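I am still getting used to backbone structure tokens and would like to learn alongside you. Would you supply a protein for us yourself, any chain you care to pick? Start from the sequence, derive the backbone structure tokens from it, and show both lines together. Go ahead whenever you are ready, and we will take it from there.
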Amino acid sequence: MRFVTSSTHRLVASACLAASMILVGSYVALSKPLAAAFPVLLLAWLRFGIAAIAMLPWLRKPANEPPMQPSTRRLVFLESFLGNFLFSICMIYGVSMTSAVSAGVVMAAIPAAVAVASWLLLRERVTGRTWAAVACAVVGIGLLAIAKPGHDMPGGGSQGKAVLGHLLLFAAVLCEAAYAVIGKKLTGTLGPKRISALINLWGLALATPFGLYFAAQFDFGAVSAGLWTLLLFYALAASVWTVWLWMTGLRTIPAAQAGVFTVLLPVSAALTGVLALGERMGALELLALAIALVGVALATLPGPSVSDL
């Protein structure tokens, strides 16, 4: 009976991790039409504001949770500043300059970036397979850089703008890597709901000055009902559902094994771009995505112990 219960817990935790990554990929792609309708910093402010209302009950400290130490408070701020605020801005600007397919390829570098960040900041061991994954990420992003301008973007686009978009997406990858490393420490102190609510509240505080400035000049009446619905989904998926699902899964699945599920992020982003946004995936983009997914596999799938180079 205990084995069955343990297996059920792992199955539920795995489902949470998979759902989290699929949602991340979809909202990365769907942020493109939102960025075309809203100024990016106003969009970030609206996202954090909607999520803050949804997560008000999560802010209450559970009775069994110890008071936060100053070091924990600093980590919560850094988790929000890097993984919420800067990630959102870099990701939205990057997707607006490139495509959802490109975003999927670049975001596939997250597992390798997390491993390198863990090596630099936590002194965790990095194997030869991980360095090979880094090489795959570099090759995949490099292929995007030489793709024909506007080939995968409806309406076209300049090469310089696409390169800047890829750089911003890579900056988002680095922010996400820092988010993952800091999250390893926070999950040992705070619960998933409380982490989600606190880092979103910091994101709202950081975005408010910019949001108020752009809101004063923005015509909200020109936004269609469909875009408001998409904004509601984006806010809840990005700030509430994905964080809670991921932190919940991590309570049962070790972080090293959880990384396997990140393969669903680039696949979800690319498929959403093609199926929902009408983007085209050319030969170079398809090759770049395939190489990027090989990199994800190298960085996350367990291998024989003798293969650690």
User: Anything to note?
Assistant: The chain has a mean pLDDT of 82. Residues 87 and 172 are 5 Å apart (CA to CA). The two ends are 41 Å apart (CA to CA). The chain has twelve helices and no strands.
